Amino acid sequence: KPQFSTSLPGFSLEPFLKIGVTLAILQSFGIESHFGPQFVVSIADRDMVAQVLRAEGRTPQRANMESWQEYRDLRGRATGLISAEGEQWLKMRSVLRQKVLKPKDVAVFSEGVNEVITDLIKRIHTLRSQEEDGETVTNVNNLFFKYSMEGVATILYESRLGCLENNIPEKTVEYIEALELMFSMFKTTMYAGAIPKWLRPFIPKPWREFCRSWDGLFKFSQIHVDNKIKDIQSQLDQGEEVKGGLLTYLLLSKELTVEEIYANMTEMLLAGVDTTSFTLSWATYLLAKHPEVQQSVYEEIVNNLGKDQVPTSDDVPKLPMIRGLLKETLRLFPVLPGNGRVTQEDLVVGGYLIPKGVTLCHYATSYEEENFPMANDFRPERWLRKDNMDRVDNFGSIPFGYGIRSCIGKRIAELEIHLALIQLLQNFEIKISPKTKPVKAKTHGLLTPGDSINVKFADRK
Ligand code: HEM
């Protein structure tokens, strides 16, 4: 019965480990475990991760999605990109990838995202004025949750929710509360699928909550999609030319059914809020803790963009430190610390026969000294080497996954995070405050800040 322990902050594999791990697999960083009834081999060695991902066919299959599928069958709902498999997934991926997968596709969202950032900055002014020192903002996690939700909704629904307003409209308050509840319930209920069906009559709560949170998520998206359908119809009725973004395109092109659009909007909203907000929270925390790094990122902004110029996506390539900052934040705190695959065939990896279920533990991989010297240190400049910056095939850190089934929202997330960080640094010096506590990461499916992050946003002189 081998023991396994890791010094990664807040990360422990022990609960997942089971007796029967073979020594050979353990020696090569692969670990056998069970997720409920499922048998899984975990791989963290960079070259083996690369081998698994490079062997993927045309429709890679994500592991542990049975409970998502079961909910959709129960309610007669369609699957979205995260939960779909096979040809159904390929069809939707081909439609959506044309609209959001390249930096130039998302460049059109810069203006909308910048409007949300203006509100974010106003909100920071309001929040810090409520503190004694006039500078500290407590629980930036909550602030960035609202920013991320507003940002992604602007892109997905082409409408504003008002999450960052001082007096949030009552209806939006209900939505935010419902969504916060749903996201928090979702985390605790994501293991619903790990509980065998025969146990549900005895432990009914996780499955019931799981369905309830999905009901809420679908309802929320449906309201916004239906509003857009009404808008488009009234424009058509008045003989106007209909122009719009992603949702308008999807509704007009009819490449996806309306049910598929509901499902994809629901799953993209789910995938696009916590991921972006945790990453921004960590980036802010790391900048406050490392003023020397912050100074060099700030100087790069001032020298290449100026103190006041509002950035667009075209400016980001001029600011390699901002890109390095995001990459380094995600290396240290990848929101999805692991990633499951059901491989199409049994694979021989590193000389061992690996059966179909595989978990790729990129959180562990990204702390390997061999891949990243002084791996525990926060060093955005390590990404400045030209060969490092754009190498998605550098399997040492793949926070967005790799290949045809990787994150479809990567460019959206980058846009929202890069533009927000640039403007935050143009406006504020982010500093530790007496209220800043040491914050470790914790995992419950996602890797999240284990405590509230409190930092000062001091005016730039
Ligand atoms: C920092 C932010 C984000 C991170 C770190 C992240 C990470 C990931 C990862 C690791 C995957 C799994 C990839 C794989 O299986 O190989 C994924 C999938 C996905 N992400 Fe993201 N994500 C982020 C933001 C977003 C945003 C903003 C959206 C939507 C607007 C989004 C939508 C999706 C979708 C739909 C999938 C499923 C893709 C498919 O199966 O074809 N993500 N993401």
Automatic annotation (TrEMBL):
This is Cytochrome P450 family 27 subfamily C member 1. InterPro entries: CYP11_CYP27_families (IPR050479), Cyt_P450 (IPR001128), Cyt_P450_CS (IPR017972), Cyt_P450_E_grp-I (IPR002401), Cyt_P450_sf (IPR036396). SUPFAM superfamilies: Cytochrome P450. It holds the Pfam family p450. It comes from the Eukaryota. GO terms for cellular component: mitochondrial inner membrane. One of its GO terms (molecular function) is monooxygenase activity. The lineage of its organism: Eukaryota, Metazoa, Chordata, Craniata, Vertebrata. Heme binds at C407. Keywords: Heme, Iron, Membrane, Metal-binding, Monooxygenase, Oxidoreductase. PANTHER family: CYTOCHROME P450 (PTHR24279), CYTOCHROME P450 FAMILY 27 SUBFAMILY C MEMBER 1 (PTHR24279:SF122). Its cofactor is heme. It is found in: Membrane. GO terms for biological process: C21-steroid hormone biosynthetic process; cellular response to peptide hormone stimulus; cholesterol metabolic process; cortisol metabolic process; glucocorticoid biosynthetic process. Belongs to the cytochrome P450 family.
